[in-house]
Amino acid sequence: MSNIDQKTRDLVAPTGRLRVAIAVGSAISAVWATRDNETGEPGGPSIELARLIAARIGAPLDLVEYPSSGAIIEAAPSGAWDVSFTPVDAERKKVVEFGPNYFLGESTYMVPDGSTINSIEDVDREGVRVYGVENTATIRSARRTLTRTTATGLSSLDEALAKFRDGEVDALALGKESLRNLLPQFPGAKMLDGHFMRPARPSPCRRGARRHWRSSAASSRN
User: Fold this and answer.
1) For residue range 66-88, what is the model confidence (pLDDT) as tens digits?
2) Rounded to the nearest 5°, which phi and psi values hold at 134?
3) Nearest Cα to 50, choosing from 4, 8, 102, 88?
4) 6-104+200-221: which CATH topology?
5) How buried is 78 (Cβ within 10 angstroms: 0-12 exposed, 13-18 middle, 19+ buried)?
6) pTM score, two decimals?
7) Would you report the helix, strand and coil content of the chain in percent, each value rounded to 5?
8) Backbone angles phi, psi at 64, to 5 degrees
């Protein structure tokens, strides 16, 4: 049963339904959801968190799907969603407010079978083809840390994985939890030790709703 007062509920979920933006792709993680092959429904930690929070505030849940966390943030000014779960960086703070952290992760690179790249430092060489998902905190961080090559952003994780599978990628920038789930799909591929980014995963919300979202999140932990 909800113990959130009506004023807070109205501010967190102004339509009367909690609209949670989720990134749907090919690798499950604290940010990414994957689609069930039989039902077509998305699943993952972000979905479970969304259901828990909706239940705790006493609002019906609507999942709003996007191809990446960057697309989620881009849609924020339109008012299409109330809450989400994404990494945080300075660019995103210009667009949305962030609630409590729910996960601390690391980002690194996956390299294909037979690659001579053995460390994160090896990635930063001229001619190394680095790819990631555009407008994500991960690819922005990769670009900040690369000095001899650059990272090319693609519109979705599926597109990035297709290029990796076709041999067009030397290093794929992504969160470690996603990469661990992807490795079995690419025999011989390896995830590089260490990290070039260690972002918190807080829950972004619409501007002006942060204080009320914090109280809702705190209630969900009680």
Assistant:
1) 999 899 999 999 999 999 988 87
2) -60, 150
3) 102
4) D-Maltodextrin-Binding Protein; domain 2 (3.40.190)
5) exposed
6) 0.62
7) 35, 25, 40
8) -110, 115
Distance from C-alpha of 222 to C-alpha of 204, rounded to nearest angstrom: 20
Q: How far apart are CA 46 and CA 63, in angstroms?
A: 10
pLDDT of res. 85? 87
User: Could you tell me where in the chain the CATH 3.40.190.10 domains are found?
Assistant: 6-104+200-221, 107-191
User: Encoding tokens for residue 101?
Assistant: 């952290």
Q: Please give the CATH topology (third level) of the domain spanning 107-191.
A: D-Maltodextrin-Binding Protein; domain 2 (3.40.190)
Say if residue 187's pLDDT is above 90. Answer: yes
Short-list 96, 42, 87, 93, CA closest to 64: 42
Quick check: helix, strand or coil at residue 192? Answer: coil
Which H/E stretch holds residue 47? Answer: helix 45-57
Q: Which stretch of 12-21, 24-33, 90-99, 204-213 has the lowest confidence by average pLDDT?
A: 204-213
Query: Exposed, middle or buried: residue 173 (CB in 10 Å: 0-12, 13-18, 19+)?
Result: buried
The per-residue pLDDT for 207 is 55
**How do strand 61-66 and strand 18-25 relate by DSSP bridges?**
parallel
In whole numbers, what is the pLDDT of the chain averaged over residues? 87
The residues near 211 (Cβ < 8 Å, ≥ 6 apart) are: none
Check pLDDT > 60 for residue 126: yes
